[in-house]
Design brief:
By secondary structure, the chain is mainly alpha-helical. Helices cover 62% and strands 0% of the residues.
Length: 156
């Protein structure tokens, strides 16, 4: 028997937001993965891509988590043009069309959280975006993401 299998084991990972469900960080990562598909599919394919995402066994989650991920994803997609415009206004020489797809996806998620999601403090949105960039981006991604998002934070 493993120590983590013992009842009440301190080694077992706890979710501090809702017992038995994803943490906000895990949920944000799933939204990032789903949002990443936007860059490779026409807008009219988004609903189909979302269905494929949730059918994938790797992305199997509790129904409540799926609903929250889907809801936030669709709210971001609805605001994508505004988010991209906000990014283009603040990033000199790096229009969204020139950005790396991973960096752009992370920035879109974070800018949505900064501008439209009142439940996520700006500092948390920036920190989480930097962590996503460290995990999924290139070596310079976290600095780039942090620099871009700092421009949004300065305006608030």
């Amino acid at each position: 028997m493993w120590i983590s299998e013992l009842p009440g084991s301190a080694c077992r990972k706890k979710n501090k937001y809702r017992a038995g469900h994803m943490s906000r960080r895990e949920m944000r990562e799933q939204i990032f993965k789903l949002l990443f598909r936007v860059e490779f599919n026409p807008r009219e394919e988004i609903a189909r891509q979302e269905a494929f995402f949730f059918e994938d066994e790797e992305n199997s989650m509790a129904e409540e988590d799926n609903a929250q991920i889907s809801g936030k994803f669709n709210r971001i997609v609805d605001k994508l043009d505004d988010i991209d415009s906000a990014l283009n206004d603040r990033v000199q020489g790096w229009e969204t069309g020139r950005m790396g797809k991973v960096d752009l996806t992370i920035l879109r998620l974070a800018v949505y959280e900064i501008l439209y999601d009142e439940e996520v403090p700006t500092g948390v949105a920036i920190n989480e975006a930097v962590e996503l960039a460290k995990k999924f981006g290139q070596d310079s991604s976290s600095s780039f993401v942090n620099g871009v998002l700092a421009k949004f934070a300065q305006e608030l």
